[in-house]
Specification:
36% helix, 5-stranded mixed beta sheet, single chain, 247 residues, elongated, Ubiquitin-like (UB roll), binds FE2/S2 (inorganic) cluster, Fumarate Reductase Iron-sulfur Protein, Chain B, domain 2, alpha+beta, 9 helices, 7 strands
Length: 247
């Protein structure tokens, strides 16, 4: 397969970027999108040119670092799939593919397709950890958790913090991410003791980092590679208001 790639190139945070055109030749339909970019980079290195910088780590859909915008969509058009799990067979031979970094004020571009996601780290840091003494490991059935709550907590815990929700939102809102992180703790007994402080501090850290507010577009739910539900946002808003009432 062969593709015409329009890729965003930008030297650093301070310089202006622009699209550069590359031809990716000899691409196997079984290659992942990142392997296709590796192939392009090998060619650039052989020519003595600067390879394209892009984030990646696990290449198994669990770390979230590979998120980029492909043909205008975070992680590309395939639902419930990260870029590293996207295969070239889902594109047409000869197609032109436009590749850009996630664009949001809180995610400055470091170089080319790489962005700085440390704003997410600051939100997680603000939430802290479960600091109450929960004693030694209890028997698995000592604290009963309703199945519905356990399922919701596990679904929320699937968030990989990739930033796709921010990139696809017209307000650059991080509410899907923050609400998922809050939900997976506050729905389970060990995380319930501190939910008020956690909700208040994480929402404030989110606002301070420069993310926008949710206006119920629900694009985030649609583009999330882990299909996190936007209902978590309603729960987070309720928790935040209840935390403020206790201040
Ligand atoms: S590289 Fe880890 S999710 Fe894609």
């Amino acid at each position: 397969m062969q593709f015409k790639l329009k890729i965003w190139r930008q030297k650093n945070t301070k310089t202006k970027g622009n699209f550069a055109v590359y031809i990716a030749k000899g691409v196997s339909s079984d290659m992942s999108f990142l392997e296709m970019l590796d192939l392009v980079n090998e060619d650039l290195i052989l020519k003595g040119e600067d390879p394209i910088s892009f984030d990646h780590d696990c290449r198994e859909g669990i770390c979230g670092t590979c998120c980029m915008v492909i043909n205008g969509l975070a992680h590309g058009s395939q639902r419930g799939t990260t870029v590293c799990q996207l295969h070239m067979r889902s594109f047409n031979d000869g197609e032109t593919i436009t590749i850009e970094p996630l664009r949001a004020r809180a995610f400055p571009i470091v170089k080319d397709l790489m962005i700085d996601r440390s704003a997410f780290d600051k939100i997680i840091e603000a939430g802290g950890y479960v600091s109450v003494d929960t004693g030694s490991s209890p028997d698995a059935n000592a604290i009963l958790v309703p199945k519905d709550d356990a399922d919701k907590a596990m679904d929320a815990a699937a968030c990989i913090g990739c930033g796709a929700c921010v990139a696809c939102c017209k307000n650059a809102s991080a509410m899907l991410f923050v609400s998922a992180k809050l939900a997976h703790l506050s729905l389970l007994p060990q995380g319930q003791a501190e939910w008020r402080g956690r909700a208040r501090d994480m929402v404030r850290a989110m606002d301070k980092a420069g993310f926008g507010n949710c206006t119920n577009e629900k694009e985030c739910e649609l583009r999330c590679p882990k299909e996190i539900k936007s209902g978590n946002i309603s729960r987070m808003n309720r928790q935040f208001l209840m935390a403020l009432l206790r201040e």
